[in-house]
Design a protein that fits this description.
The protein is mostly beta strands and 112 residues long. It has a single domain (3-111), classed as 3-layer Sandwich (Rieske Iron-sulfur Protein), CATH 2.102.10. 0% of the residues lie in helices and 41% in strands. It has a three-stranded antiparallel sheet, with no helix packed on it. Strands 2-3-4 form a three-stranded antiparallel sheet, with no helix packed on it. The protein binds FE2/S2 (inorganic) cluster (FES). Residues 48, 50-51, 53, 72, 74-75, 77, 89-91 line the site of FE2/S2 (inorganic) cluster (FES).
């Protein structure tokens, strides 16, 4: 395990979600969604609990049209940005996998 910077907090707008990938120590790659709402930052694995696919339909397109939920493009599941809980769709009641992060000197950092 090692600490890795994912991005700078300032890379995201006040309400935003972006996709990033990290290479782990074993050489494998994981996809992440970084969600910013004001000063709050939430990070999840970019993997829908329904089938395991990435959520976005275009790069960095994670929010639904209303901007309230993260949405899976494949079958439309809606997830709360603040905890990744699925409120509607085929995986309702499941959650995106949470990734703990810290903001250190403006960098969003995780340990994986
Ligand atoms: S793959 Fe995400 S809702 Fe079906």
């Amino acid at each position: 395990m090692s600490a890795q910077a994912i991005c700078r907090l300032s890379d995201l707008k006040e309400k935003d979600a972006r996709g990033y990938s990290l290479v782990l120590d074993d050489g494998s790659e994981i996809q992440l969604i970084v969600v910013r709402e004001g000063h709050a930052v939430y990070v999840y694995r970019n993997r829908c609990p329904h089938t395991g696919v990435n959520l976005e339909w275009q790069p960095d397109q994670f929010f639904d049209l209303g901007g309230a939920f993260l949405q899976c493009a494949t079958h439309g599941a809606l997830f709360r940005p603040e905890d990744g809980y699925c409120v509607r769709g085929p995986c309702a009641g499941d959650s995106l996998e949470f990734v703990p992060v810290w903001v250190i000197e403006g960098q969003v950092v995780t340990i994986l």
